[in-house]
Amino acid sequence: MKLYEYEAKQIFEKFDLTVPKKIGIIENVSDLEGLSLNFPVMIKAMVLIGGRGKAGGIKKADNIEEVREICSKMFDLTIHGLAIKKLLLEEAVDVSHEIYLSIITDPATFDLVIVASASGGIDIEEVAKNQPGEIWKKTLGDNPNTLPEELSKEAADFLVERNPELTSVKESLSTAIIALFSAFQKCEAKICEINPLIVTCDNQLIAADAKFVLDDNSLYRQAPLLKSIGIDPRSKRHDVSEQTKYEAQAYIIGFPFLDLLDNPENFQKEEDKLYVGLVPGGAGYGIFSIDEVVNVGNRYFDGNVVPINFMDSGGGPSLSKVADMFHLLMDHPATDLIITSRFGGISSCDIFIQGLIMALRDRYISKRRMIPIFGRMVGTDLAAAKAFFDKAKKESPEPLKDLHIVVGNQKIMAEVIKDGIEYGFRIKKQKELGGIK
What we know:
Shape: elongated
CATH topology of the largest domain: Rossmann fold
Helix content: 25-40%
Structural class: alpha+beta
Number of strands: 19
């Protein structure tokens, strides 16, 4: 779960990290009337994505007229396609130096990584890329509950070495690093970041920005923390600004869906790759499907196969929900091929095939984009599903001409995936040569 900056700062304060004085959160310009403003004021767009500063989502105002003008413009602004629905107003602080601090969980090894730099601010990515010597990094494989003091001092020494003007706050820097690590561990976070940690002219340390991502698996243990920052732990929180267009559609329909591609609404395909959408029978099989598509792609197709999504139909989906799952992937601009499977335990093979065929018939009639589908179904209601499928192929062969479903255990799923990918590449080549429109 990603937290908004103002929520993350509430957590920081619990661990004695100083933050700017909060003035208020507004959802429209008229909300300014109830606020007591001490200038200068920082106005910040609340979106759960980086790059706000460069995109115009962080501004400073010196009077009420500027505040109104900036707020009005920000509410009309989008940042990386995300609408701004809330603004944070807080008192501005004077800046002498800017520092970068973060603690993350390495997704590959699950080791903890601490990162610090005396070159904080909006261009920290460029610093890491072009001046790696300006970055201090330490990996902790033993997952300690508290940060050893010698490591916090090592990080502080590095920062002072890179900027001797930080000498007067070296002890405070060591304390702040320990506090940030404590917040990370006690709140079971995946990411804690301060960028920038400001050193003021009178040598105070202030966390001017805050990024905090909680581990979803730990949320039930963090109910008191969530309550304390205004989040109801009983509710399933989904911020629209966290979701892609397709994730939001799936959430409204009522099934889990996760895009595996960055910026899928405007995704640019690589010409030599085949992009595979997945409609599995359950969450576990959804994860397996991603791995198996990658494995088959690496083994037989030079690694040029890309799974584009995770999806879970849930137990016993309705006919219309099955249809909507296929509609969503066929509307997805990246999809070249759909791989599907149905191990009918709780879920009925009959409902599955009816929903799938309903989607294909609807799209054929309305002349919407059709995508080749390869899959297999076994299990509950298989006889009825096979009878319906056979009848449908005779009654409406055109809408179903690119539907390839293996009924029963004639083939293992890996072979179905391989057949589908081979077909997908063949169709893609024919389109490139002008043989298919």
